[in-house]
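hey
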């Protein structure tokens, strides 16, 4: 069994235990689609995620950063993973990149953070803010997918190449795919540059401005 297969099996066992199965029950009771094991409500999901120990990122975290915002939001942002500030307080996008995201939400969309929902592909901080590995993202992804199913946003903005790639399995570079409107399950998905990239490359802000105006048009 590969490490990824082991982790997937462990995740299924973990979810089963979280909703009341005992590990010693017969395996036939816990076969089926993994998503059917995940509780429906966002609070139940948050509880499961907050106790997750399925990958190595749990070892270094101070807090799980589940995501926050309006669970009836029409617009959802998906970033890569928490950084030091987010890990310290358990909330997504609160550092410098987060402040820029807040400005985008307020100044371009004329909304507040309370109107939208903000989440990440991985819910625990990767050490030294490195990019999450494929295994970490694959293990954490069902949580994000369930979040998306529960919130059911009309529009999802994938922030940065990592968010886009791990959400869609599409390897197209963000510089080529940004601004496109992609049908993603029940939602329209628009990838754009990550706010951290904008902090390093302010000249890309105009591209994001265009992309977010497209988002505004869809809402
Ligand atoms: N970068 C992200 O991708 N997510 C956060 O929550 C913060 C910074």
């Amino acid at each position: 069994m590969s490490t990824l297969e082991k982790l997937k099996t462990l995740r299924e066992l973990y979810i089963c235990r979280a909703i009341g199965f005992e590990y010693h029950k017969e395996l036939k009771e816990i076969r089926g689609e993994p998503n059917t094991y995940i509780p429906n409500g966002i609070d139940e999901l948050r509880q499961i995620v907050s106790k997750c120990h399925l990958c190595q990122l749990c070892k270094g975290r101070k807090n799980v950063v589940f995501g926050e915002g309006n669970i009836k939001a029409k617009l959802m942002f998906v970033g890569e993973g928490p950084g030091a500030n987010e890990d310290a307080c358990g909330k997504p996008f609160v550092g410098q990149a987060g402040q820029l995201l807040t400005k985008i939400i307020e100044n371009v969309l004329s909304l507040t953070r309370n109107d939208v929902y903000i989440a990440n592909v991985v819910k625990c901080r990767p050490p030294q803010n490195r990019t999450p590995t494929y295994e970490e993202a694959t293990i954490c992804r069902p949580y994000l997918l369930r979040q998306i199913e529960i919130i059911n946003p009309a529009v999802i903005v994938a922030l940065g190449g990592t968010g886009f790639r791990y959400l869609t399995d599409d390897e197209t570079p963000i510089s080529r795919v940004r601004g496109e409107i992609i049908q993603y399950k029940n939602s329209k998905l628009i990838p754009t540059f990550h706010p951290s990239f904008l902090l390093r490359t302010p000249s890309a802000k105009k591209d994001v401005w265009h992309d977010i105006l497209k988002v505004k048009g869809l809402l």
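The beta strands are 68-69, 75-79, 117-120, 155-159, 182-184, 187-192. Residues 25-36 have pLDDT under 50 and may be disordered.
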